[in-house]
Write a structure and sequence with these properties.
alpha+beta, Butyryl-Coa Dehydrogenase, subunit A, domain 1, 3 domains, four-stranded antiparallel sheet, three-stranded mixed sheet, 9 strands, 14% strand, globular
Amino acid sequence: MTRPDTDTMNAPFPDAAALEATLLDTVDKFLDRDVRPHVLALEHSDTWPAEIVERMKELGLFGAIIPEEYGGLGLGASTYARIVERISAVWMSLSGIFNSHLIMAAAVLRFGTEDQKRTWLPRFASGEIRGGLALTEPNCGTDLQAIRTTARRDGDDYVVNGTKIWISNGIHGSCFALLVKTDSEASPRHRGMSLFLAEKGPGFTASRKLEKLGYKGIDSAELVFENYRIPADRLIGLEEGRGLSHALGGLELGRINVAARGVGIARAALEDAVRYAQQRETFGQPIAQHQAIQIKLADMVTRVEAARLLVEQAARAYDAGERCDMEAGMAKLFASEAAVENSMEAMRIHGAYGYSKEMHVERYYRDAPLLAIGEGTNELQRIIIARQLLERNPA
């Protein structure tokens, strides 16, 4: 059955601002009705939110940034980031279910052939095919050039062998942008790397679900490839040796997403802290009246607003087609650290209640550290920012 708010999203709009306002209102209603009442139960049981994922398909979230000509919503990164912030403020795990998927879609959109776009993007947009990125390996994270998974050409196929780990949507996803070595002897190493669209099949196994501190509900898995055959026409762009640049190009959108998640968690922590501080009393008055608490709240709201502005700056650059690794890196760095700091301060303001699983605050505290690691560690972000700063300001 078609949902009323889905109809609203597909109706004509007089301008972009009206479209965005309606989209965000629809997302808010979806969160209030279909997500918020179930978060604690799904989080504590680490359950894949199958019914919520179906609602996300109906809303078109799996095609958020895919152009309308390929069946998507055609949203810019700015609107997309605002949606991610809202969703992450309620349950961050949901943003990961469609973000990793959309980075895969972005790789096809930016670097695929026209035939690949028309074959794959409509199925990604509808959610018929869902998945993500398969980049990292047991001995390789930040240094992607050190991957060991190989793809050897054999007639009209490539034969893939290797292991990937910490792959979001690895259990419930069906297709992944798979980074491999097609030439292990290439120098520099990146010239021997290629990116494929790999659908699950014989030789491709999601071997196990990995247990995590936070980020529950979404599955993170180990993927094993044993003589897995993949048709040569699944090579994105049909050209070997471009895989690393294709993967890194998608990570710009990924870092904007992670930054928006940071804003969402930082905002949720702030809102919970403000609410609790106005209710909890000590020494005859709400603790919000104590200067020590006010100082914390002032720092928290400043972090939220500053992080949001950095995300907007990065998203505008991305939408304009500009190189934005510096802007995305700054947004990701600051917003993720804001989420970590605000989650800690919210827990301190809540006292013992902040340590209780009956409250959302302890979940923010467990989820936030992932943002400082995922899509490139914050240490790496600082290096990227500094190098871009120097490149843009030559002596």
